[in-house]
Amino acid sequence: MSQELNPVSSDGTENRSALLRRGWTGGVRGNERLTAITGLLLLVLLFIEGVTLLGIRSLLTVHAFVGLLLIPPIVLKLASTGYRFVRYYTRSRIYRLAGPPQVILRIAAPFLVLSTVVLFGTGVILLIAGPAARDVWRPLHTVCFFVWFWPMTVHVVAYVWRVPGLALADLRLQPDGRVARTPVGGLTRQGLVLGTFLLGLTIAIAAMPLDASWVHWLSRLGTEG
């Protein structure tokens, strides 16, 4: 029998805490921490992205840069939550023991995932295609933002109170007994988050020349206006 299925206490009964932290990455608790650290990074970047909407014409370059930077961390967040989803519905014992999200979050999740993919997908298309694509893709991008905003708000309100504690526990590398006792899992999670941030930064820097057509279009629009 695997370790995941056979943690027992001294009296021979199953130890729930041991079940939830099994594995060198910390099991369910490790998954929660990875999701929390990634979520904390996303909250900061999404706040910056939201600020650019207040002056989108003058901050369009920043908006595009941060939008591209967000993509790899978003993929990591979807992967960590998707992994838990798959493990739960394939009846993994430790993930079943941890339980499902609240009903409202399970209802909102498909809308959040789909709208996130479409929102960032249309943003990338707009950046690559340039102002020539604005009549078709810009309205779709805008509509997707409003569709995405509501399930995202529900998601943030539900989890934001848990994020700091889970994220900071790993960042301080001080295991609290609910996760594997070695720092290996914590270092792995931090490495994944840092790696996706650096990948996003690389993509954003490399793609910035694509913004030139939009900058030119906006400057011409300002001159004509």
Mean pLDDT value: 82
H-E order: HHHHHHHHH
Radius of gyration: 21 Å
**Cα distance spanning the termini:** 73 Å
Number of strands: 0
Structural summary, described in words:
This protein has 225 residues and is mostly helical. It has one domain (15-22, 36-213). The chain has 9 helices and no strands. Helix 2 crosses helix 7. The radius of gyration is 21 Å and the shape is elongated. It starts with 15 loop residues before the first helix and ends with a helix. The model is unreliable at 1-14 and 173-182 (pLDDT under 50).
Helix and strand arrangement:
Blueprint: H1 16-20, H2 27-52, H3 60-89, H4 93-98, H5 103-129, H6 134-159, H7 163-171, H8 184-207, H9 212-224
Helix pairs in contact: 2-3, 2-7, 2-8, 3-5, 3-8, 5-6
List keywords for this structure.
0% strand, disordered N terminus
Give the gist of this structure.
By secondary structure, the protein is mostly helical. It has 9 helices and no strands.
